[in-house]
Amino acid sequence: MDFLRRSLLFLPGDNPRFLTKALDGEADAIILDIEDAVAPHQKPAARLAVAAALRTADFGGKEKLVRINALFTPYGREDVEAVVPARPHTLMVPKSDGILVVQELDNLVTGMERANGLPVGEVGFLLLIETPLGVINAESIALASPRVTGLCFGSGDYVLNTHGTLTDDEWELLYPRNKTLLASRAAGVDAIDLVWPKVKDLEGLEKSARRARVLGYDGKAVIHPDHVPIANRVFSPSPEEIGRARRIIAAVAQAEAEGKGAATLDGQLIETPHAVMAQGVLDIASRAGLL
């Protein structure tokens, strides 16, 4: 399935109460987290709760994701064995550092699908690029499996491993953010931006989201329901953008009808690639219910 991914809301996998509220909200996707949000002694119960929620809760049109623990931990394989039979749309995969990590998970998920009589390949991967090695290998990681539907840059572990410091303007993240984006586009998959960690700082969140959109990101992972409307707004075309997209498409169509290879709109040269980009804007607007 092809999901809109403007906002992906993290929820702790061991607290069903949060899920009930989130399902009534506006997030495009729900991430049931059994990695960082769950203490080690709670992980067995959390994975069972997540599997039950996947089977019984009505997600509507929201994408169902589960952030599993990394396979090299004592929990990762059991996470996969518990949740894949419950048919999540996507596994969010932490510490995606290289091809072998992705391929090992692919083989494990394939085995679980076959063992449970499920279509092979139906579970996608959203890979977390959150370490220096992951950033270095981002291009090959994005192409490591046909299950990969996107890359998500994670700043917390990245800065921890680089011994850097997170700043409000995020200048220290420009290179890994760009590299994750380029790897996503090279592989033809989605690019999801980092979490804004300051829950109450909605102005900072919006600035962070706008920086990501300028780079080309499709959406943002968020950690609080109050962050969802901001992410949805930033990663949706504005009325002005929709109007300009329509004018670009009309101008190019008229130029083609007149046998011309280009048009001029508001003093700017407009060619076929501009029309393709404009159609992309309208496609997102349509999927977001803005047309």
Notable characteristics:
eight-stranded parallel β-barrel, 2 domains, 291 residues, 12 helices, two-stranded antiparallel ribbon, alpha/beta
| Number of helices in the DSSP assignment | 12
CATH superfamily of the largest domain: Phosphoenolpyruvate-binding domains
**Spans of at least 5 consecutive residues with low confidence:** none
Q: Which overall shape is indicated by the principal axes computed on the Cα atoms?
A: globular
Strand count:
10
Mean pLDDT: 95
Oligomeric nature of the chains? single chain
- The H-and-E topology, N to C, reads as EHEHEHEHEHHEHHEHEHHEEH
CATH architecture of the largest domain: Alpha-Beta Barrel
Spatial extent as radius of gyration: 20 Å
The level-1 CATH class of the largest domain: Alpha Beta
Judged by helices, strands and strand pairing, the structural class is alpha/beta
Gap between N and C termini: 21 Å
Instruction: Give the spatial strand order of the biggest sheet.
Output: 1-2-3-4-5-6-7-8
Helix share bin: 40-55%
Instruction: Quote the beta fraction.
Output: 15-25%
Number of domains: 2
Largest sheet properties? 8 strands, parallel, barrel
